[in-house]
Write a structure and sequence with these properties.
Blueprint: H1 8-19, E1 36-39, E2 42-46, H2 59-72, H3 80-84, H4 87-100, E3 104-108, H5 111-122, E4 128-132, H6 137-144, E5 149-153, H7 158-168, E6 175-180, H8 192-201, E7 205-209, H9 224-227, E8 236-240, E9 250-254, H10 256-265, H11 267-271, H12 277-292, H13 295-314, E10 325-331, H14 333-346, E11 348-349, E12 352-353, E13 363-368, H15 375-391
Parallel strand pairs: 2-11, 4-5, 4-6, 6-7, 7-8
Antiparallel strand pairs: 1-2, 3-9, 8-9, 10-13, 12-13
The chain binds pyridoxal-5'-phosphate.
Length: 399
Amino acid sequence: MSNVHELGFLREKIEALKEQGVYRKLPVLQGANEAKILLDGKEVINLSSNNYLGFANHPRLKQGAISAVEKYGAGAGAVRTIVGNMAIHEELEKLLAEFKREEAVFIYQSGFNCNAGTIQAITDKGDLIISDELNHASIIDGVRLSRADRAVFRHSDMDHLEQILAEKRQEYNNVLIITDGVFSMDGDIAKLPEIVELAEKYEALTYVDDAHGSGVLGESGRGTVDHFGLQGRVDFTIGTLSKAIGVVGGYVAGSKTMYEWLNHRSRPVLFSTTLPPAAAGAIIEAIKMLMETTEYTDRLWENANYFKQGLGQLGFNTGQSETPITPVIIGDEAKTMEFSQQLLEKGVFVSGIVFPTVPRGTGRVRCMVTAAHSKEQLDQAVEIFEQVGQKMGILAGGH
Ligand SMILES: *Cc1c(COP(=O)(O)O)cnc(C)c1O
């Protein structure tokens, strides 16, 4: 018998991953995350990041980080509830609340952490959580940590959501409806006006995880709630500071009562040290930039539409996307991975996404266009998509 400390039980599972062809090594970036990157020693056009606005390596954010480090140091030194709550964290929360046009914002170390901490803090035994079936993994984990009962509605299916509400509402104290604002694999937007109407009709609370909507949708990136003009009608709006905002962190926007309660009972604030000053300083610059001008979000949408149009004209299937997330649906899993590999060889990095992340037979490469891409880079990428698409017989009428 082998020694358990050799972790043979994990070795077996790793071997199984290799047999299924899903074992992978992480690609290594030799520099900042930008429109063009040095990846494993090769210069390629980057169509895989969540750096929507090109903020991750922006000089103003870097300067904000440096200034914050000089004043506050490298780390917060304690959890916020003891002595890690710095003026820069309070400043960040006030600025975010102003930006989001909500009463209050409570920050977290990441978007993931925000879902893990918030959902369990605002729900209890005797409550029901109703969640869209395509919600993000961190919501699923967050829901698992709650003592509430749970139900799942079919993706964006309002009839199904209403059926669950009609059937179950009476049995519970509070009901919390949770949805992504923008769904990350297809780029479709939640039917938020209808969800809010149903929530009001059945006296349910609403919780929108707007990780892919923050910095993208609404006025200068204020998000999906702003896009639909629903301020004040969504109880909890989650945003990430790690995608369009370009740094790291997460937050929930809502009422002052929400803020007070999370401050006392959200486990990531009680048991985990908060954002480092550098992150807070950089994020403050990013939010100020969005409050000063819409030029970043304007360019993001212009680039996204330009690229989508280019792929669409060639005959690629870009699915149901309503946002800069541009899936190119290939179908077969192996073919999808091969497509991604050949694009990389020709100088475009776009990751292949297959089962179990998306349903079987709907493999796709997911293109993430940013404000930082030049038209020339996008033209070049479209040309490479055409070459590889014809070579692999993905585009009809290849010549
Ligand atoms: C990316 C993502 C998160 C996690 O955000 P991080 O800040 O990277 O931890 C949470 N929810 C959704 C819907 C996301 O897309």
